[in-house]
Amino acid sequence: MPVGRPVRQDAPVYENELPSYELAPVPDRWRIIENLGVNEKWYDPYNQNTLKADRPLPGTKDWFLNLSVIYDAIVEARRIPTRTGAAGDQSGELDLFGDGSQFVTAHTLIGSVSLLQGDTTFRPPDWEFRLTAAANVNVAQINQLGVLRVDPRENDQRVDTFVAIQEAFVVKHLWNRSERYDFDSVRIGIQPFNADFRGFLFASQEPGVRFFGNFFNNRAQYNVAWFRRLNKDTNSALNNIQSLRDDDTVIANFYYQDFPVLGLNIEALFAANINREAHRRDFDDNSNLVIPSPVGLGRGHDYEVYYIGLAGDGHIDRLNLSFQLYGALGHDDFNSIAQSTQDIQSFFTAIEASYDVDWMRFKAFMLYAMGDEDPTTARRRASTRSSTTRTSPAARPRSGSASRFPSSSAAASRSRA
Predict the structure, then answer these.
(1) CATH number where 164 lies
(2) For the chain, how many structural domains are there in total?
(3) What's the confidence (pLDDT) of residue 412?
(4) How many CB atoms lie within 10 A of CB 393?
(5) Partners of 409 in the beta sheet?
(6) Which of 204, 301, 333, 394 meets the CB 3.0–4.6 Å disulfide criterion with 104?
(7) Angstrom distances, CA of residue 285 to CA of 33, 162, 233, 236, 416
């Protein structure tokens, strides 16, 4: 040992306090930047700001407030083939298609407030309370009667407004699984959920209960959820919380990263959609019949469909790859086309691959959905998609208040989302 080098037992020992030269009074770690002369401005979202959860609320140690405001607008002028309907606009108009000139615009203001408790630097918050509201104004001008509304006596312009609750939920962090903050949490209320990488099955904001978490150092994630669907406003596609459907969706999915090769993520999924609306009859705000679907006899029916899916998203070396496979089995107690009960058997697959060469990307994709050569038989072999779509308001002047078939779709739902 070199001469003069201190050994451990020669080091000074301090009880209850550190030496004065190692002490420096500082505020908490969120406000330490104020010592450098940088103070927040409540209206500045680009720097540290209490209103976007950069630091705790005054008088608290670990309660944070996050406010956000989004304005979304669409303006579209178009000319597309438009049917004439049962009666033409002009005397003697007998063509199948009339005036195709259309103009639609929609404006949506979304405000969200989230209250969080806990140190969220390395782990989920202990509590989260979130409320998101949306206000929509949409205008549609279509120069053909009977398109915006069923009644041809109505004019060719529609102005509509709607206010909705898009999110209203509470999240509780149940426990940590490991020292690296693998966790389990539960979320209750109206909440967004995505079932798969590309949104083929379920993507919506519905009331329900969701258990989610991760393990293996966040390499694996899972979701187990139940949702009861809401009707959607006809012209804005926002939630109508006053119209709850007798339609339940249960989803369980599991993600595993870097499997079977580095860079590729795999998902396995099971979903069940159970609808008991045989005796329900709904018209949308434009007087269109939407439940039951006006196809065939247009008679109400109960059905249940079960889905098994396998998906992948990522890359294998330089090959970018995304794929989805679904099988569906179920039973429809009355099919309006077959006019009888039907068993459901279906298959769906979609694959997209791309390869980058310098600044160019070569892409190929394929989609296959099983069809039914004879829909009047007792076995339905058509592809069925259970989904609530997110189409732009007003861009669909005759959109129904409820999609014909329940619910599933979207991009990968990670547990930490």
Answers:
(1) 2.40.160
(2) 1
(3) 34
(4) 26
(5) none
(6) 394
(7) 54, 11, 8, 11, 37
> What three-state secondary structure class fits 23?
coil
- Position 260 in a domain: yes
Q: DSSP string of 396-413?
A: STT--SS-SS-----B--
Of the candidate ranges 124-133, 287-296, 361-370, the one whose mean pLDDT is the lowest: 287-296
| Helix, strand, coil abundance in the chain, percent, nearest 5 | 5, 50, 45
Alpha carbons 394 and 192: distance in angstroms, whole number: 22
Structural domain containing residue 194: 8-380
- Helix, strand or coil, per DSSP, at residue 9: helix
Query: Does any domain span residue 17?
Result: yes
Hey, what are 366's tokens? Answer: 């394929």
Q: From 50, 77, 84, 86, select the one nearest 66 (Cα to Cα).
A: 50
CA neighbours closer than 13 Å in the CB half-sphere of residue 413 = 29
Contact 150, 288 (CB under 8 A): yes
The partner residues of 346 in beta bridges, in order of sequence, read: 328
- As given in the structure block, the two tokens for residue 340 are 């009888």
Condensed to tens digits (0 to 9), the pLDDT of residues 18-54 reads 555 555 566 666 667 666 677 778 888 888 888 888 8
User: Has residue 413 been placed in a domain?
Assistant: no
How far is 225 from 183, CA to CA, in rounded Å? 17
> 257 pLDDT band (50/70/90 cuts)?
very high
Q: Which amino acid is at 124?
A: P
360-369/302-316 β-pairing: unpaired
Is there a domain that residue 409 lies in?
no
pTM: 0.78
**How many residues in the chain?**
417
